[in-house]
Amino acid sequence: MRICVVGDELATGVGDARALGWTGRVVARTHFSRPAMLFTLAVPGETSTQLGARWEAETAARFGPDSEIENRLVVALGRHDVAAGLTVARSRLNLANILDVADANRTAAFVVGPPPGAPAEGDRIAELSDAFADVASRRRVPYVDTYTPLAQHEQWLADLAQGGGVYPGQAGYGLMAWLVLHTGWHAWLGLPQDEVA
C-alpha cells in the first residue's frame, strides 16, 4: 500500500518537538498486514486552489502503476483558504475536483479538515470545515472534522497558545491523531477497528 498525504505544513507536524505531527502518530498506531509506504507531500501556506493544481502530478510519481499496489490519498486541508480570502464556494469546488479526479483514477481518498487557529478566524474556519464535510459526504469519502471537537478543547487551546496561536505542539497533534484514528481510518484501510489503542 502507498499512501500519499497532501496538504499544507500542518501535515508535516510543524511545531511538534517530536517531529511526528498527526501523520506520524497515526501511522505509528496503524498495524498494516504488509509494509506500507507513506509520503507526506506538504507545501507551506498552501490554499486548496494551489493544492488542487499540484497534487495529481506529485502523487503520480509515488503511486504504483502495478495493479497489486493499493494507492491511497489523504487530503489534509489547512486554514489558508480563510487567510487568502477564498470563497467557501471556491474551496468546495477545489476539494470536489480533487476527490472526483482521485475517484476517476480509482484512488481511495480520506479527508482531514482544518483545525482551529486564530480565534478571529473561528467562524470562517468552522464554515469551511462544514463545507468540506458536505463535499466529502456527497462522495462517500471519510471526513475527519478536527475543528468542532477542538475549538473549545482546553488542551488544544493551551498548546496552540504556546505555538503563537498558529501551530499546535505535541499535545495538539496527538489530539488530531486521535480524531483521525477514531473517525474511520482503520475501516478506510480495510483493517480491524480493534487496532485502535
From TrEMBL:
Instruction: Give start and end of each SGNH hydrolase-type esterase domain.
Output: 5-174
Entry's InterPro entries?
A: SGNH_hydro, SGNH_hydro_sf
Q: Which Gene3D superfamilies match?
A: SGNH hydrolase (3.40.50.1110)
Under what name is this protein listed? GDSL-type esterase/lipase family protein
